[in-house]
Design a protein that fits this description.
heterodimer, A: alpha/beta, sialyltransferase cstii, chain A, seven-stranded parallel beta sheet, 7 helices, 24% helix, 15% strand, globular, B: alpha+beta, two-stranded antiparallel ribbon, elongated, disordered N terminus
Chain lengths: 231, 113
C-alpha cells in the first residue's frame, strides 16, 4: 500500500471529473467534440483548449489521462476500467493511483506501475489515513481524499456535473460504452450525489477549501465559481 | 458459413473463463460476461485479475506472467537559488513551492515506491 507524500503542501489542485461541462467551459468546438465522442480521434485534441491548466497541479479521473501528459496524477477506482485502458496507460508516464482492490497486497513487480490506496468503505467523506481514500461510491469523490493527502489547501472540481450536459452526453469523452452500444443501467448521478454533504463537513473540519467550478453542477455543497474567476 | 473455431489458438490466444459476478470489457471493447469463456492473449489479462479470469487449461509456469512494459514517471531535481524543485520529464514542477534538497530526494523516493 502506498503512503501519499505531501508534495502539494499548502497549494491547490484541480480535479478533472468526467462531466461534459468542461467542453463548454473551455470553448471546445462541437465538431471536435463529436469526433472524440465517436472515438474517431483521441481526447488529446482537447489539450490545447485546456492550456490554462497545464501549469496547475492536476488530478485526472479515469479517461482524463488521455487529454494530456500535463495531468500529474491519474486516479481510477473501477477495476474493469483498467482492463480497457491498461495498454494505453502503460505508455503514459504520470503518476497512476487506484483504489481497485485487485492491486491490494501485490508485489511491486506485479503492480504495472500503479500505486494502491485502500478503500475506506466505512463512511462517506474524506479519509485522514494517507494510505486510504474514502470511496464514496465514485472515483471523483474518492480523489478528494487523495488531494487532501497531497497536502493541498484548496481543491477545484471540474466536470463534477452529476447531470447530462446540454448536448445530452454524460462525459466529455462520450461514454464508457462503445459507439452505438446502449447503456444497460440508468446513469448513477443520484447515487453519486449522496456523499458530498459528508465530504463538505469533513473538508470544513480539516481546513480544506473545495470549490465547484461548474455553476450548473448538481453538487450544491461547495461554493460554485465561474472558471474565469479562478483561472 | 465456414467455422473458424481453433484459429485463435493458432495465433497464440488462450482460452479463459470469467468467474464470479460482474462483466469485464477488454481492450478490444469486447464485453465478457460471468461464466463466459473467451480467447485473449496473455498480455490482455493482467495478473491482478487472474483470480476471476481463469485460464481454462493450466498455463505453463513460464507463461503465467507477461510483464507489462510501463513508462515509469521520471523526475529530476532542479536548483532554484538555494532551494530545489522536482520536475517531471516534461519539465513541469511536480511539487508545490521550493524544497530543501533532502526533502526533494525524499519525495522522489516516496513517489517511486
Amino acid at each position: 500500500m502506498w503512503t501519499v507524500p505531501k508534495i502539494w503542501e499548502g497549494g491547490e489542485c484541480w480535479i478533472i471529473g468526467g462531466g461534459s461541462s468542461i467542453l463548454e467551459q473551455f470553448s471546445i468546438p462541437k465538431s471536435i467534440i463529436q469526433d472524440v465522442v465517436l472515438q474517431k480521434i483521441s481526447p488529446s485534441v482537447y489539450s490545447e483548449f485546456l492550456k490554462p491548466l497545464h501549469t496547475k497541479h492536476v488530478i485526472g479521473i479515469n479517461n482524463a489521462y488521455q487529454i494530456g501528459n500535463w495531468v500529474d496524477i491519474l486516479f481510477f477506482g473501477d477495476c474493469s476500467w483498467y482492463l480497457v485502458h491498461r495498454l494505453r496507460l502503460s505508455q503514459w508516464d504520470g503518476i497512476k493511483v487506484t483504489c481497485c482492490d485487485r492491486f491490494a497486497n501485490r508485489q511491486k513487480k506485479d503492480m504495472e506501475g500503479i500505486k494502491y490506496l485502500a478503500k475506506d468503505r466505512r463512511h462517506f467523506g474524506i479519509s485522514e489515513n494517507s494510505s486510504m481514500v474514502a470511496w464514496n461510491g465514485n472515483s471523483g469523490a474518492a480523489a478528494i481524499s487523495l488531494a487532501f493527502h497531497l497536502g493541498v489547501k484548496r481543491v477545484i472540481l471540474l466536470g463534477f456535473d452529476m447531470r447530462l450536459g446540454e448536448n445530452q452526453i454524460s462525459h466529455w469523452h462520450g461514454s464508457h460504452q462503445q459507439p452505438g452500444e446502449k447503456r444497460k443501467r440508468p446513469l448513477p448521478f443520484e447515487k453519486h450525489l449522496r456523499c458530498f454533504l459528508q465530504i463538505s463537513k469533513d473538508a470544513k473540519r480539516l481546513g480544506l477549501e473545495i470549490l465547484n467550478a461548474n455553476p450548473g453542477s448538481m453538487i450544491d455543497e461547495f461554493p460554485k465559481v465561474a472558471l474565469e474567476e479562478i483561472l | 458459413m465456414k467455422r473458424t473455431k481453433g484459429k485463435k489458438e493458432e495465433n497464440g490466444a488462450i482460452l479463459w473463463k470469467k468467474s464470479g459476478r460482474g462483466s469485464f470489457r477488454l481492450f478490444s471493447g469486447k464485453i465478457i460476461k460471468p461464466n463466459q469463456t473467451f480467447h485473449a492473449s496473455l498480455d490482455e489479462i493482467p495478473l491482478p485479475f487472474r483470480d476471476v479470469i481463469i485460464p481454462v487449461k493450466e498455463l505453463p509456469s513460464e507463461e503465467i506472467i507477461v510483464p507489462l512494459k510501463t513508462l515509469p514517471p521520471r523526475y529530476v531535481i532542479k536548483e532554484k537559488g538555494e532551494k530545489f524543485v522536482i520536475e517531471d520529464s516534461r519539465g513541469k514542477a511536480i511539487n508545490e513551492g521550493l524544497l530543501s534538497k533532502e526533502k526533494a530526494e525524499r519525495f522522489i523516493e516516496e513517489l517511486s515506491t
